[in-house]
């Protein structure tokens, strides 16, 4: 539901904004606006607003019933943070118009079936929670809600279904209990006890191999990183022990109890969970992110414990607010800070923890990374007296725990922190982190500071970074991003190929044709060729070096100069790199000249993949080559690799989409021909068109197969290289009786996890091949464990 639309239309703006002016449409828009805005800041109390709105809607029911039903069903799904406000409204309408209440319940069940069919599982959670809260408003009878929950839990008895399916149905039931547990226990305690014991049995037999792959920290102290169902189960157990008393959910319906208890209730129609379909995409398991407890928020209200249900409710509502408003950072920040009940909790700590929890969520955050940066900046602006201090405290904690933090999460922390600093003049108390200067520079802390400064330089310039960091940090300051041209001056004249670089440089300046430049390059001696070898056809690394060093040197002024140089001499580059060795060597030369400017390397490699000068497998082989071993743990290496994989995946998807479109077109054409009857002329034209389409489909089919084979090969190259590197390390440690857990090993094994997690959808297609060729039973158990954790994510 768009809330902005109403403010845009009602602000006295230009008349052209409102195209539809007929009265019924205006009334429908007014109804939508009234329903969407109830529960927001107002001079009147929420109760009187609800009573007034119920009166307005009741009066409009005869004419606008379908519209009202549609809006209420939509807000139940899309505005879960105002759940109890809307259940109260439905309760009041049901008390005044029993038939409308029945129709609403039926519409909600239809919508629930639809969302499950369309794999919209997060929205389905909100719909079930809404239905359960209607029990509190005397709209739905408690026994029928219990019956629905029993049907949900029966899924745990199904055979040959993925664990994530059963997990979801268990999660739905447990996550409704903070709202409705008390009411259901009062009415159906025996059935509820049976239900909870079934859930307990299921949780005990669940497989949790996947958990290490999803944890932000490997250490269990100071806060255990619990699996989401285990944590929620502990919270519900405590709630039950406290006799279902929770103190945090806003319950407007209590004020209307005398009206609501008189209302007739509806029974939910029997609801059977839809069966498992092979293409169903259930939500992945999660680990609950914890970084604060009551000791971290010394002043003001106490933070609820990690197993108190209040913690679940607060976090759930904050996640819902972000989900609803994430595209509008100002609205989102304002909504988070005006959270109901904010005076009873240390709200800033909860907000910061929830935002970092989403940012570090594995395999990927719910929204794009940069959204969290802009949201935190906005929050700092709105609460300058308190939120920046909490954020600084959180950053300090994250820094202190870097040694056990997941490498993927460290990447996101680097990107967030450098971007955040760039918005606050790069001010930071760097001296507080001087402990990182006394340890091995490969350890996580110095590595983190170095990468943050590297990223900050991309958002600023080299001298600025030198000025903001204390001189003691000089070892961690990135090198000045200058071009390294080995044929720069006279002293290089003894180097092979020097004379040709001068000629090539002049030819490029004088706008010589590609043929002329290729003729000049023929003069370059080939170090790989024997004197008596007349063919001269073997791969010549010096030719690539002479041409590319000279070309990039002349274009070193900016990104756009370099791009246009690659574009202009694309034909020559393609000629020089027609072999696999040539492709590897061109990447090697790009690294040699720009090794002090990782961002330039990344964009040039990206450009060369797009223009097909190099292919994705060549980039992977280069990154894992011995030449790059000293850079292996640098962040830019992995940014290039992930970008390369994404390009390959997009290429495959694009061709697959073209193929699907061509097939649809052919199908429509055949339908059209069947419907046209006996028209011979039309028949002949249709047959010609169909023939062309069939040829096109055949060509596209071949392209898809070739692209998929290239994609599979890319993953095989990457995993094979990982296995070789890790196996060498493990054997070396074993023979030397050394501990395997070095900083390099932690980084490498977690990068392997990262590849699996970030590209899990694509990799799943090739599981059979990976299992047969690479991840076999003979593989070292340290490496195999990563593959087994990945498999467990979708079991």
Describe what you observe in this structure.
This protein is mainly α and 795 residues long. It has four domains: 26-35 and 42-259, Alpha Horseshoe (Serine Threonine Protein Phosphatase 5, Tetratricopeptide repeat), CATH 1.25.40.180; 310-474, Serine Threonine Protein Phosphatase 5, Tetratricopeptide repeat, CATH 1.25.40.180; 488-525 and 538-613, Serine Threonine Protein Phosphatase 5, Tetratricopeptide repeat (Alpha Horseshoe); 641-672 and 686-790, Alpha Horseshoe (Serine Threonine Protein Phosphatase 5, Tetratricopeptide repeat). 64% of the residues lie in helices and 0% in strands. The chain has helices spanning 4-9, 23-37, 46-78, 83-96, 98-117, 121-136, 142-153, 163-187, 189-205, 211-214, 228-241, 257-260, 309-325, 329-337, 347-359, 369-382, 387-400, 407-422, 444-458, 462-468, 498-509, 514-521, 541-554, 559-568, 570-576, 580-594, 598-610, 616-623, 635-676, 680-735, 743-758, 760-763, 767-773, 781-792. Helix 8 (163-187) runs parallel beside helix 11 (228-241). Pfam families: MIF4G, MIF4G_like, MIF4G_like_2. It comes from Amphiprion ocellaris (Clown anemonefish).
Q: Helix count? A: 34
Instruction: Give the end-to-end Cα distance, rounded to a whole number of Å.
Output: 35 Å
User: What name does the CATH topology of the largest domain carry?
Assistant: Serine Threonine Protein Phosphatase 5, Tetratricopeptide repeat
Low-confidence stretches: 1-21, 531-536
CATH architecture of the largest domain: Alpha Horseshoe
Q: How would you characterize the largest beta sheet?
A: none
Name of the top-level CATH class of the largest domain = Mainly Alpha
Whole-number average pLDDT?
A: 90
What is the percent of helical residues? 55-70%
Total beta strand runs:
0
Q: What fraction strand?
A: under 5%
Structural class: mainly alpha
What best-fitting shape do the alpha-carbon axes yield?
globular
Estimated radius of gyration: 32 Å
Number of domains: 4
């Amino acid at each position: 539901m768009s809330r902005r639309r109403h403010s845009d239309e009602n602000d006295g703006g230009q008349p052209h904004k409102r195209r539809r002016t007929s009265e019924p449409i205006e009334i429908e828009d007014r109804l939508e606006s009234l329903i969407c805005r109830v529960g927001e800041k107002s001079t009147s109390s929420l109760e009187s607003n609800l009573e007034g709105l119920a009166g307005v809607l009741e009066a409009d029911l005869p004419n606008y019933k379908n519209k009202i039903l549609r809006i209420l069903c939509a807000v139940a799904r899309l505005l879960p943070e105002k759940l109890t406000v809307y259940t109260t409204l439905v309760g009041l309408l049901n008390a005044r118009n029993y038939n409308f209440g029945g129709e609403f319940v039926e519409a909600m069940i239809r919508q629930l079936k639809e969302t499950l069919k369309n794999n919209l599982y997060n929205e389905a959670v909100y719909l079930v929670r809404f239905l359960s809260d209607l029990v509190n408003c005397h709209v739905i009878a408690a026994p029928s809600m219990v019956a629905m929950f029993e049907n949900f839990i029966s899924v745990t008895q199904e055979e040959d279904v993925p664990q994530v399916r059963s997990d979801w149905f268990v999660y739905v039931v447990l996550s409704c209990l903070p709202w409705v547990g008390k009411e259901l226990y009062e009415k159906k305690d025996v059935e509820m006890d049976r239900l909870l014991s079934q859930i307990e049995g299921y949780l005990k037999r669940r497989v949790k191999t996947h958990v290490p792959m999803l944890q932000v920290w490997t250490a269990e102290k100071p806060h255990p990183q619990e699996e989401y169902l285990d944590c929620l189960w502990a919270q519900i157990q405590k709630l039950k022990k406290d006799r279902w008393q929770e103190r945090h959910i806003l319950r407007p319906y209590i004020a209307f109890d005398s009206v609501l208890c008189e209302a007739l209730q509806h029974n939910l129609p029997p609801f059977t969970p839809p069966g498992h379909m092979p293409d169903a995409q259930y939500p992945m398991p999660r680990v609950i992110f914890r970084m604060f407890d009551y000791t971290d928020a010394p002043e003001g209200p106490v933070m609820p414990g990690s197993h108190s249900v209040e913690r679940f409710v607060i976090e759930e509502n904050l996640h819902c607010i972000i989900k609803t408003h994430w595209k509008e950072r100002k609205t989102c920040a304002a909504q988070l800070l005006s959270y109901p009940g904010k005076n009873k909790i240390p709200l800033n700590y909860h907000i910061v923890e929830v935002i970092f929890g989403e940012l570090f969520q594995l395999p990927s955050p719910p929204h794009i990374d940069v959204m969290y940066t802009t949201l935190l900046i906005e929050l700092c602006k709105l609460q300058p007296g308190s939120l920046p201090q909490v954020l600084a405290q959180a950053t300090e904690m994250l820094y202190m725990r870097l040694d056990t933090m997941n490498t993927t999460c460290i990447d996101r922390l680097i990107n967030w922190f450098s971007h955040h600093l760039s918005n606050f003049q790069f001010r930071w108390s760097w001296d507080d982190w001087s402990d990182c200067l006394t340890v091995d520079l490969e350890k996580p802390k110095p590595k983190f500071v170095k990468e943050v400064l590297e990223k900050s330089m991309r958002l600023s310039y080299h001298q600025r970074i030198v000025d903001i960091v204390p001189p003691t940090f000089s070892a961690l300051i990135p090198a000045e991003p200058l071009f390294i041209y080995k044929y720069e001056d006279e002293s290089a004249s003894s180097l092979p190929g020097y004379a040709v670089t001068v000629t090539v440089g002049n030819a490029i300046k004088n706008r010589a044709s590609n043929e002329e430049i290729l003729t000049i390059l023929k003069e370059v001696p080939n170090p790989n060729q024997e004197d008596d070898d007349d063919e001269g056809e073997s791969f010549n690394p010096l030719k690539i070096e002479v041409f590319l060093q000279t070309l990039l040197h002349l274009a070193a002024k900016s990104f756009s100069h370099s791009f246009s140089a690659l574009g202009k001499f694309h034909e020559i580059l393609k000629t020089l790199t027609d072999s696999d060795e040539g492709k590897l060597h061109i990447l090697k030369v790009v690294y040699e000249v720009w090794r002090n400017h990782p961002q330039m390397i990344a964009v040039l490699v990206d450009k060369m993949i797009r223009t097909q000068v190099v292919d994705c497998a060549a980039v992977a082989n280069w990154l894992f080559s011995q030449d790059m071993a000293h850079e292996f743990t640098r962040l830019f290496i992995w940014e290039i690799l992930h970008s390369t994989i994404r390009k390959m995946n997009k290429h495959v998807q694009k061709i697959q989409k073209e193929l699907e479109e061509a097939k649809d077109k052919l199908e429509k054409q055949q339908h059209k021909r069947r419907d046209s009857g006996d028209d011979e002329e039309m028949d002949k034209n249709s047959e010609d068109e169909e023939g062309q389409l069939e040829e096109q489909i055949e060509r596209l089919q071949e392209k898809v197969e070739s692209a998929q084979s290239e994609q599979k090969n890319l993953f095989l190259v990457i995993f094979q290289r990982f296995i070789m590197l890790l196996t060498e390390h493990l054997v070396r440690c074993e023979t030397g009786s050394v501990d395997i857990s070095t900083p390099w090993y932690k980084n490498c094994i977690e990068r392997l996890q990262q590849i699996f997690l970030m590209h899990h959808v694509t990799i799943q297609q090739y599981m059979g091949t990976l299992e047969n060729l690479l991840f076999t039973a003979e593989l070292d158990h340290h490496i195999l464990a990563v593959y087994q954790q990945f498999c467990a994510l979708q079991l």
